[in-house]
Amino acid sequence: MTANHQNSNKPPYGLLAILMVGAFIAFLNNTLLNIALPSIMEDLNVDTATVQWLTTGYMLVNGVLIPATAFLIRKYSVRMLFLFAMLMFTLGTFVAGFADIFSILLIGRMMQASGSAILMPVLMNVMLVSFPVEKRGSAMGLFGLILMAAPAIGPTLSGWIVENYDWRMLFHFISPIAIIVLLLGFIWLKDKKEKQAIKLDFLSLLLSSIGFGGVLYGFSSAGNDGWGATNVYLTIIVGAISLFIFIIRQNKQKEPMLNFGVFQFPMFTLSTIITMVVNMAMFSGMLLIPIYVQNIRGISPFDAGLMMLPGALVMAAMSPLTGKLFDRFGGKILAITGLTIMTISTYFFSRLEMDTGAIHIMILHTIRMFGMSMVMMPVSTNGLNQLPPRFYPHGTAMNNTLNQVSGAIGTALLITIMSNKANAAGEDLANATLRENGGGELSQEAMLQIGLQSTLEGINFAFFVSTFISVIALILVFFMKRSVPAKDPEEQTEALETEPLNETESSK
To answer: Where is the signal peptide (predicted)?
Structure first.
């Protein structure tokens, strides 16, 4: 798949359809597992810190492999990359589905991650080279509709399966679909690619793996272990140093594994910063609403999934419309509108009470998702539109990698804020209750009530902080401009070098 597809009369819809179905089941599998974690803990006899590796390990594999996809996309054909990715994902699904000990389940999960890490950047790159700038919004909107359907149905479907079947059914349900997609890809994908004489710099791969992997692991662990834990600050420091060396090495190489030259294009840089900030704010809803609904209100996982369903469906349904509006009006007005809605609704989430109604939460969450649907795709597409075709693989890899990093940072930050506030509020409430009772010991019922109230205060404060994060993104959006493809700096340099030569030849 090359940039030549931009100039073709008809985009490769068959190729895109197969890629999208593959990406859809990878996304669906990721959202299915979260609600099943308590069942896995009980069945395999592991604690919370251990079972979290199913999520952390998945994130680490993504952080290691996604930066390398820029090289892989330039080196290999879409057919080869897709078949390898789907094969790894399918094998991992089978391994996880038949796992009877946690280590085997974790291996299967990481095999799945190695496939899904390649699928998303490959699909985004094909989208960029297959559609001209003026039609790219609509194409990305359809892409968003398909991928947003996964988190829309994932929690509800997972809740129903876990309540009625064994958790392994989550993997058995995906396995036959993955096999069908793999076979369709093997039969139908016929794209050709010219061989490129580029080699992978293994030192860059090592530095990238240690750098992004260390930062992701450190921030992911901070949410559970606290910022003072050795494994947290040590891995973040080692990761940051490795990333610094990695960036310096990439800037000195003629064919870098991941080209940081994408940041010389201002709209791409701005869009990357905005999406990272929005990602951090977005995680407040994904983390805190389920904690409030299940732990404080006592609502079952299946009913909690049903409460989140309308918001996810609205976000999915809005994707095609947002894409068409983007093509017509650009991303700025959409992002301003969406972030305003998102900021206001996030603030109202910071005012939850012990008896806030389920309908109220569902409506507020749906409004928040409606606002978010007008932000992520328009902002990221506007940034990618400014890149010359040579930078597409690097831009998509950079976007996906930094989304992983910002997600880990947002998770760690918000969990830490919630925990610290909850602990402080718990102490204050306990002391106040003791003073009212004239000393003595707290009853078990009083301690339970204090625990729920302090958790609520922690959730509300985390949402309040998330509101300010949304405000930062809203301010940054006002600096957006509608992007047009920039001229490739390398081509401009070559033109300047050949121009004097041409003038000399013409004078002769």
So the answer is: none
The answer to whether residues 318 and 375 touch, using CB atoms and an 8 Å cutoff, is no
Q: By the 8 A CB rule, do 211 and 240 touch?
A: yes
CA–CA dist 160, 175 (Å, integer): 18
Neighbours of 344 (CB within 10 A): 14
Quick one: pLDDT band at residue 3, thresholds 50, 70, 90?
very low
Percent of the chain with pLDDT over 90: 19
Residue the block writes with tokens 């904690």 = 291
24: containing domain: 1-191
Asked if residue 464 and residue 334 are part of one domain, the reply reads yes
How is residue 265 annotated by DSSP?
S
Pair 246, 103 in one domain: no
Instruction: Give, as one character, the DSSP assignment of residue 374.
Output: T
Return d(Cα 296, Cα 346) in angstroms, integer: 19
Both 211 and 225 in a single domain?
A: yes
Residues 6+ away with beta carbon under 8 Å from 282: 372, 410
Least confident segment among 133-137, 307-311, 345-349: 133-137
Q: What is the tally of structural domains in the chain?
A: 3
492 is a domain residue = no
Look at residue 508 and tell me if it is in a domain: no
HSE-up (13 A, CA, CB side) for residue 43: 15
DSSP designation for 191? -
What confidence score (pLDDT) does residue 2 get?
Answer: 44
| Helix orientation angle between 53-65 and 202-225, rounded to the nearest 10 degrees | 150
Q: Which of 160, 191, 222 finishes a domain?
A: 191
Q: What is the mean pLDDT of residues 270-286?
A: 83
Q: Would you say residue 57 lies in a domain?
A: yes
pLDDT digits (tens, 9 = 90+) for 77-90: 888 888 999 999 99
**224 and 347, same domain (yes or no):** no
- The pair of structure tokens assigned to 10 is 């008809």
**Tens of pLDDT along 215-239?**
888 887 776 677 788 888 899 999 9
CB atoms within 10 A of CB 357: 10
Residue 82 and residue 19 share a domain: yes
Amino acid at 103: S
CA-to-CA distance for 114 and 137, rounded, in angstroms? Answer: 29
Residue 389, helix vs strand vs coil: helix
Statement to judge: residues 217 and 76 lie in one domain: no
What's the CATH number where 465 sits?
1.20.1250.20
Of 144, 162, 191, the position where a domain reaches its end is 191
Residue 277 CA to residue 410 CA, distance in Å, equals 9
Residues 164 and 226 in one domain: no
Same domain, 163 and 177: yes
Average pLDDT, the chain: 81
Query: Of all residues in the chain, what percent carry a pLDDT higher than 70?
Result: 87
Q: What is the SS3 assignment for 387? A: coil
